Amino acid sequence: MLGWIIALIVAAAVIYVVFIFNRLVHTRQMANEAWSGIDVQLKRRSDLVPNLVEAVKGYAAHERGVLEEVTQLRGQARALPGGDIAARAQAEGALSAALGKLIAVAESYPDLKASGNFLALQQELAQLETDIEMARRYYNGAVRNQNVLVQSFPSNLIAVLFGFAQRDYFEISNEAERAVPQVALQTAR
Question: What does pTM read for this prediction?
C-alpha cells in the first residue's frame, strides 16, 4: 500500500513538472513570436527612412545635419543584434526622435508638404509608428507572462532547472526619445 502511495506522489510530481515545463515553453515561444513582430515593424520603418530622406533632401538641402542624423541612426539601429533588446530599444528611440525632427523640418516647406509622394510617406510612417506601438505592447505582455512564470514559486524551481530566464521589456529609457514623431497629415487642396 505504501508503495502505491509513493508511486502516486512521484507520478503527480512528474506530471506537474511536465505541465510547468510546457507552460514555460509556451510563454517563451509567445515572447519569441512577439519579438519577431517588433522586428518586422522596425525593419519596415527602417526601409522607409531612405525614401523619407530623399523626399526631404530635394526641398531642404541646407538641412543636411538632420538628414545625416536620421541616416546615421538608421544604420546604427540596423547594425545591432536582434537579441540585444535594451540597446535596440535605445537605438530605435533615438531614430524615432530624429524622424520627428525630420518631419518638423519638412513642415517648413509648403511645396514638400503638398507633395503627393511625401504625403504618402508621411501616412505610411504614421501607420508604422502605430504598428510598432501595438507590436511593442504585445511583446511586453508576452514577456510579462514569461517573467511571472519564471519568478513564481514553484514554477521558478523548474525554470531554473531547465534554463528558462527572464526577458527584458522593450522600453525606451530616455524621456526625450519616448516622444513619438508627430506626423501631421496634410490634405492636398
Answer: 0.77
